[in-house]
Every structure is written in structure tokens, then in C-alpha cells.
Write a structure and sequence with these properties.
Length: 432
């Protein structure tokens, strides 16, 4: 079968099998050769790609819920969307959620995903109490902060390279409504948006759309969206996808002029300043999930997301340089997002560090990768790193500099036989 992930690059020939029971999974794991777990394929690059994969989506039962403390036990193939549809009407919502609900619980743990509230709530692992992990020999171990804590720290953010996460116990947060009190601010440049992030950092959620084609005085022109759960409004939610992109857009549709037009339109149609308006939770957290197959707008050749984070002390200077360089290159990105991250969590390969993160979607084209190599050097010089779940091209050297704990992670893989059993195109490229 042909296999790819959200960026639709690369596409490979792979053997894939579904599992519905632990026994079916064990048979796949103990077979000769290597494999990797595949959740909902929402990672952008090659972390879930391998010549042999196991699909987790049919292993998708919700096992238990404790309404006293919001702890839910479920199998790894359950999606965040399924958790929301079952628990939001009962007054519970995810404690940490990325910008899409169309991912599996296993994928959320393996990438240790973060959301708009990283500065106050940390990564997804902060709401994971425990999980069961299948190791190379097919044995199952329970991992938590107390039990097998070494495996817990390596698996959260470990990109499926320590084993297959089978079930997990995660903690939901109590909410009173399916609405958010949202504040929107237009900011003329990087200085203003940094100021706004600091000003609103007491609110649990904040994110900014950023115009990457502006430079000079207007570099970093952006729109901040911040908010908190509302205490009024119903708990009902409608999660259907009303619109879908029906075909691949031709490559020429996306160029610096179309993106510039879109960016101007977007910026000027946002309100200059609005405080605490009531908006439904779904478009606030998941604006793109209402458009099916939106990845087709980047054309047949696919796209990638370049996501970097810089330490706080270097963020202003570093981002100014990087954004000016991007604008000069003219590589337009409709989706460019800035986030404020909180402190690191001590997991081997979790991405966020205290500082600012920038993410841009970019169409794959000939001149892209050499240009991103140049950006990599700036990111490393400023003490930052790139996000593994978005990556499809980072070099081994950039990985090692960005993730100083790579060595202890690699040692664990070596000593526990994971290196031969759980591999992806990414792990082989990074030699981890
Ligand atoms: C529109 C959009 C918005 C996004 N926004 C954010 C965001 O705000 N923040 C953020 O952090 N990420 C974000 N992401 C990325 C996404 O959340 C992660 O890539 C997530 O891991 C995808 O989960 P998945 O189930 O699709 O996993 P896959 O893409 O299938 O796999 C991702 C990784 O998880 C591993 N994996 C999957 N299941 C298991 C398992 N059962 N056991 C062990 N390993 C497993 C895979 O081997 C692979 O390494 C976004 C993605 C999209 C498309």
C-alpha cells in the first residue's frame, strides 16, 4: 500500500496491518523485522512512516471514566474528537489539546503535543497519569511517574521509538460550557505581539497568527487570540466537517502574491481589539478541522511544517532575524503561528522550551530545503530546536544540538532492543 502523513511528503510503499486486540499487536511486534505505530497520520513528516506499520485506529475503546476526578482510561486509537464528543456534554474537556482534534491518544503521547496553554499547563504528558507500553519482545509494562519512570520520560515525546502505547489514563479538566471568552488584538510588529503575549499570559490560552511576508518595521505583524473557558453557554458541540477541498490545487495557486493578498485580507478583517467575546470552543481550538483535506491546497507535491522554538532570552532577536529572512526569501505561508511556551518538562525528546515557538506551513519545492538548512543554523545558533512531529528533513547534527538528551534516549533504545524493532524513516535519518 501507499503510505504518507499529513504533509503528503514523502509517499512510500509500506506493509500495514490493523490491530484490535493486544494479541494481534503482539504477533506483529514479535515477527522478524522492524515496525512503527501509525495513529491518525496527522504528523506532518516521516515519524510514522516505515516499510511496516501497525495501525492503531481500530484499538479504540473507552475503558473507564471516574467522574470524581476526570480520569479517563482508553485504548491508544481513541481520537481526541471521540473524547470531546463523549465528555464535553458531561462538562469535561481535554486539559491539553493541539490545533486539531483528529489525532489519536497514542499519537498525542508519542509526540507529547502541546496546545495554546503550554505556558500554564505544559505538554500532553502533564495530563497523562499512566500508560501501558508494548516492548520489543511483546511484553507489556505499565509506565507512570512512579513506575518505570525512565520509560515514561522516554516514551512521552519519543515518537513511537520505545514501543507501542496500548492504553492510557488521562486527566480531563472540568468546564462549564462549550464556549470560550476570546480576546483578539491586532499587533503591528514583533515588539507589539511580544508585549501582548506577556500582557495576556495569565489567560490559559493564547496564540497568534503571524504574517511572514512583512519585514522591516512591520516584521512580525500579527493577530493575537487569547481566551479562557466561559462559564455561560451550553455544553453542546457540533463536530461535523461541512466543507472539504475536493482536489489537489495546482502548484501555481500558492505563491508570494497570493499569500500576500491573503495575509492583508486576513489581518485587516480581524477586529483591531475585542475583549472577552463569546465564541464556540470548536473553531477557537480547531479552526482547520472544519475543512476536510485542507492539505490538498499545497498541491500534489505536498508540504511541510517548519516549527522551531527559541529560548525566551533569544526569542526577540532570533525571531526578528528569522522572520526578516523568510520575508526576503518570499516563501509564503498561509498558516504561520506564534506561541508562548512554558518551561521544559524533562522528557527526553519533548519539544517545547521556555520561549517562543514559530510554525509555518510551506509547500515542498526545489529551493525549500536548502533555505530551511540556512534557518536551521540560525535556530541552533540561538539555542533553539525543531519539532520532531513536523519534521521531514532535519539533519542528525541539528537534531543532536537541539535535543541534548538524545544520547540517553539512544542508549535506552540500544539496551532494550528497541533500536532494531521500532524504527521510522525519521529515526533512521537521525540515527537515533
Ligand atoms: C492541523 C494540525 C494542527 C496541529 N497542531 C498541533 C499543535 O498545536 N501542537 C502540537 O503539538 N501538534 C500539532 N499537530 C501535530 C499532531 O498533533 C501530532 O503530529 C500528533 O502526534 C498526531 O497524532 P496521530 O494520531 O495522527 O499520530 P501519527 O501522525 O500517526 O504518528 C505520530 C507519531 O506518534 C507515534 N505513534 C502514534 N500512535 C502511537 C502508539 N499507539 N504508540 C506509540 N507511538 C505512536 C508514531 O509512530 C509517530 O512517531 C497538528 C497537526 C495538524 C494536522
Amino acid at each position: 500500500m501507499k503510505l504518507t502523513s499529513w504533509g503528503r511528503y514523502p509517499r512510500i510503499e509500506a506493509e500495514g496491518s490493523h490491530f484490535e486486540t493486544t494479541e494481534q499487536l503482539r504477533r506483529q511486534v514479535v515477527r522478524d523485522g522492524n515496525l512503527i505505530a501509525y495513529g491518525m497520520g496527522r504528523s506532518y513528516g516521516d515519524s510514522a512512516l516505515n516499510e511496516r506499520v501497525v495501525f492503531s485506529r481500530r484499538f479504540n475503546k473507552i475503558l473507564h471514566f471516574d467522574p470524581e476526578n476526570g480520569l479517563v482510561a482508553c485504548e491508544c486509537g481513541v481520537s481526541l474528537q471521540e473524547l470531546i464528543s463523549v465528555f464535553l456534554p458531561r462538562g469535561w474537556f481535554l486539559s491539553v489539546t493541539p490545533g486539531t482534534r483528529l489525532i489519536s491518544v497514542g499519537g498525542a503521547i508519542a509526540s507529547d503535543v502541546h496546545g495554546k496553554n503550554h505556558h500554564v499547563a505544559g505538554c500532553f504528558s502533564s495530563c497523562v497519569d499512566s500508560f501501558e507500553l508494548m516492548l520489543p519482545g511483546g511484553e507489556i509494562v505499565l509506565c507512570s511517574r512512579e513506575e518505570n519512570s525512565r520509560l515514561f520520560r522516554a516514551t512521552c515525546g519519543g515518537m513511537g521509538l520505545t514501543g507501542v502505547i496500548l492504553t492510557a489514563v488521562i486527566r480531563l479538566q472540568k468546564v462549564k460550557s462549550a464556549y470560550i471568552r476570546e480576546t483578539v488584538k491586532r499587533c503591528r510588529n514583533l515588539e507589539e505581539i511580544f508585549h501582548c503575549f506577556e500582557q495576556y499570559q495569565k489567560l490559559p490560552y493564547s496564540v497568534a497568527w503571524i504574517d511572514c511576508l512583512e519585514s522591516g518595521d512591520q516584521v512580525g505583524r500579527s493577530v493575537l487570540m487569547a481566551g479562557d473557558h466561559a462559564d455561560t453557554g451550553s455544553l453542546d458541540i457540533d463536530l461535523h466537517q461541512p466543507v472539504s477541498v475536493p482536489f489537489d490545487f495546482p502548484g501555481f495557486c500558492l505563491n508570494r502574491y497570493s499569500v500576500k493578498l491573503f495575509n492583508r485580507f486576513y489581518y485587516h478583517t480581524r477586529p483591531a481589539s475585542v475583549e472577552k467575546r463569546l465564541v464556540p470552543l470548536d473553531p477557537f481550538f480547531y479552526p482547520l478541522d472544519s475543512i476536510g483535506h485542507w492539505n490538498r491546497i499545497y498541491g500534489k507535491g505536498g508540504f511541510t511544517q517548519y516549527q522551531l522554538v527559541l529560548p525566551k532570552s533569544a526569542s526577540y532577536e532570533g525571531l526578528k532575524l528569522i522572520l526578516n529572512r523568510i520575508a526576503k526569501q518570499g516563501l509564503g505561508s498561509f498558516l504561520a503561528v506564534l506561541k508562548l511556551c512554558g518551561p521544559e518538562n524533562g522528557n527526553d525528546l519533548s519539544f517545547p522550551m521556555e520561549g517562543y515557538s514559530l510554525a509555518l506551513d510551506l509547500k515542498i519545492e526545489k529551493k525549500l530545503f536548502p533555505f530551511l538548512d540556512e534557518l536551521d543554523r540560525m535556530v541552533i545558533d540561538y539555542g533553539g530546536r525543531l519539532y520532531l512531529t513536523k519534521d521531514v528533513r532535519m539533519s542528525k547534527a541539528v537534531f543532536r544540538k537541539g535535543y541534548p538528551q538524545w544520547e540517553t534516549f539512544a542508549e535506552l533504545r540500544e539496551t532494550m532492543g528497541m533500536k532494531e524493532k521500532f524504527t521510522s524513516l525519521q529515526s533512521r535519518r537521525l540515527e537515533v
